[in-house]
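Z., the sequence and structure:
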Amino acid sequence: MYAIQPVFKERIWGGRRLEALFQFDLPEGQIGECWTASAHASGRTPFLDGPYQGKTLDELWSTDRTELFGDYLLDAFPLHVKLLDSSAYLSVQVHPNDEEARRLEGEPYGKNECWYILEATPDAEIILGHNLKTRDDLFRCAQEKDWHTSLRHQRVKKGEFYYIPSGTIHALGPGIVLLEIQQMSDRTYRLYDYDRLGDDGKPRELHVEKAIAVTTIPDEPWMNQLETIEKEGGVMTKLLQVPSFTIIRHDVTGRYVLRDHSVFRLLTVIEGEGEACQGEQHIHLQKGSQFFLPRHAGDFEMTGPVTFVTSEVFLN
């Protein structure tokens, strides 16, 4: 079980709350994203300790895939984990699926993603889905900027979970801090950006044609079906299981065993403080910390109170 060094990203809609919530030493500026586990070329996260100290996920995927990850046939490391802090609306956007990403961008993955709300102001909301019936309706909406009546706005609160499959129009509103787990892609098609200007003083780029081409029409809302399992020392809740990833929340209240597993897992601590023990190894679990668990890493005894989320990709 190895700690991972995060990478921080300044964003026009970012803030400074990641500093207070997770005790991160943030660089200057409006930090909107903390990439806690990334194999993407624009922000690779290295291991902080262990025999692979200084190595990145993509390096190890190339050299030690079977030993550390599993018997995957995927070309590239599949997951990307972030913490987000929004002080303003993100752009109204949509992501391609795997086939569209390969065809339109020559990239290995599209972008299915999910959000776990960690903090939210009383009036915080997200945009998730639309009410349009045809692509012509969507094109007309983009031309006339008729977004208020065409998009679905939803209030959110701490502890809620949302799955946002590729093709879903969405946007994060202000006043929210969340954990985002997604496919390993940074590809976003913007439909609308509130006429904001970038650092160069010009409106930020939109990708209307591609966005319309990949949007799911009519919209297909996802129905949340959680599976909760009471365990000794805590509760395990399966938040989501789809081909792209499986997401599980672990609420540790006593002595809780995280069992050995046949594939790798990423572990993100989202609340509280605790310890992971295996033999003489004692690992401090602190809110905001990110760990990599190799396949067949053995059992870990977890103590809290602490809540963490594991993400993994099942083998087909």
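The mean pLDDT is 94. Helices lie at 17-22, 57-63, 65-68, 98-105, 135-144, 147-150, 208-214.

Let me know what you think.
H.
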